[in-house]
Write a structure and sequence with these properties.
Helix content is 34%, strand content 22%. With 522 residues, the protein is α+β, with helices and mostly antiparallel strands. α13 crosses α14. The longest helix has 46 residues.
Length: 522
Amino acid sequence: MQASKYSGNNSVSSNRSTSSVKIMEKQEVRVKLSSGIMEELMDKAYISVYDPFRELIANSYDANAYKVRIEIEDEHGCYVDDDGYGISDFNSFLTKGMTEKRATQGTSESGRALIGEKGLGFLSVFKIAKEVDVYSRPGPQTWHVHLTDEIIRNSIDNGVPIPVEDAGDFLTYGTRVYLRKLKKSFSVAKLYEYVSVAFSPILTWQFRILVNGNEAIAPEPPAGILHEKSGEGYQISLVDPYKVEDRKPVRFYNRGVLVKREVIARRPTLTGFVNTDLTLVTGRGAYVEDDQYHKFKKALDSFVDGIPDTPHYSNVLVQKSLNKLARVLEKALSTVDIPLPVEYKIVNEQQLAQAPFQVDLPKKMKEKIKQIKIITGTPRLPREVRAAKTTFGTVKEAQLSPSDLPVMTTSDSIILNLSHPHISQLATIPGTYRDLTLMTFVAEGFVDLLGTRNKEEYKEMTDKVVREMLKLYGQEIKQTSSQEKKLANSRQADQAASAQEPQEEPMETPLPSSSVSSESHE
């Protein structure tokens, strides 16, 4: 922006008198806003108290800034400044749909992909501040505009122009936005975390953000198996983390700015980020579901479906405990004091993995003995479809709980939901406590199979099964410990015996008798 653009006299010197300053003020350019902006803005477009900072930082990025500073002065005010090109046209800056970003066809002067689309984001600052002062120096001098909610509404409703004033050498370059008389309080630590995550893909030496002097650093991806793919208008970087605590929702970005966090239903264990170049709704909280979005969504679903399942350490521990509890449940069902329609044979995942396991029963006994499998799996398809993926295939009739309980059941299976936090966190607790926690889930799953509808009856039957399993669990532990102790003693004895035996020299292998006799005969 040149001084002549806002002043009728381009030759005014820096040491001008008071009278000349007044003349300059009378010749100020006045900006009018298009109607409907505040109504759109206040319609819950920006929800978080930190969203206005995101919009100001995005504007700085689009102005080719290399550094953005956020300084919290006190509980009443703060400011955001940058070293970008400055605002060359306040009309475009404040008018929806007339932003300069449109004229450059999606890229800045340095070739950056522009973040802003609608020219509406700046006005989100009035969600948290009553007064806003904008200073910008795109050329030889600084320009200043003072804004309040009342000033903007007068401009919208009554056509009252908003003055843009000459601020001399207030800035040496760039833009500074003061937010005064804050309406809402916020945490500096949370603001730092917010901007670190919200701009993670574009935080490099070419674009830095500082919050009270602390530089925002993009979070590192967790340790795990990395899966990446790029295509037209998107970049996917997903991680199957090794640790349970690293399983967090995937972050979706658009042109480097956070849009949302979301768990991928097809693979809930995945984390990481997706960066797109799509159209967003006002407020940046969701994508516009146009043809380009559906094309991207199809590519993402196809990519996720192609990621192979990998056993996590926690899953292995859960399966080990379930193998033990399958034996305990089978014994408990033979002594528990509840009515059972048939006799049950409980099969664990270890048996199923060895071979296609099926109990070979006489025809007459098949009606009296039913085989139940205790296995692990994850919800594989949307809840309405009612399906779960296990090691042995997709179980389509799995009854997924409306509240996402850790247990799923079918007509002949109890499936422990590995994606549920109560199950996935079991790797962090000792083995005995893990067994006892899973015992309750197994008992609940079995009672589900019986089709009990009455809540009180369901609870009573579950308690009886758990109590019976607890009695037998102690015996199972003692028996297992005794077997392991005998095996260990046997190994120690074998090692001691082999150490005491004298080492004999190797003897030549004698020839077979038939060979000897034939030689002597010759």
